[in-house]
Sequence to fold (239 residues):
Amino acid sequence: MVYVGQSGVDTALKSWLQVSVDTLFTAYRCESSNNNEVHIEVSMEQLYRAIKSAHETDDVLLRLMKKGAIPTLNLSISTLSHYNSRFTIEQDVPCRPQKQIYVDTFDQPAIPERNVTVQLPSIPKLKTVLEKLRILDNYVTIRANWEGKLEFSILNDQVGVRTTFEKLGVQSNEGARGTVVVDSRQLIKVFQVPELSNRAFIGICNNNCMAFYGFLESLSPSSEGKDDYLMFVIPSKAL
Fold:
């Protein structure tokens, strides 16, 4: 299992990724004196730039190695040129090995008890709605209740817009409801993650935060039935 959390980042948006090894790799070998586990810290911005070089191929070798005295994640990317000849791109991302005692401090973002947890409607449809709301205002109000009703709305001096989804799957006590006001720019980032399946939920912690749980499409037959998921927590603006 691979876990990815944030460290040393001052941001209101908290995230956590849990994904099985079989989902990421077709072949995998990890050897260490720490129960064959390796923990590293890496800049996600640098890693993302390196991985972008591999967007047109699935032939990528990822190795943890040293370049001189610097620990490095090396990506060896085999791809085809415009003339149909194969060539290799090498990308090096500096990384920092971490001790187990440091890694043990990482866990999913802690949130209060959720008032309402609602299964989201079609992700592409919802993304379209949120993109339009983001243009109209920097903040969007989200309301959900125990009957499976989910509402996204904005209200300012120029415009008022409300989009409602009903009869959604829900987990809550009878009579429960919750409201949060979140940054629409942060919210749309959640739905720009590739490989999101339509199995996604949001939990409303009334006037505190919104937690998003998005399950990832399985990339490997051997990973079917495993819960590969991404979690985002966005704080609520004070009402």
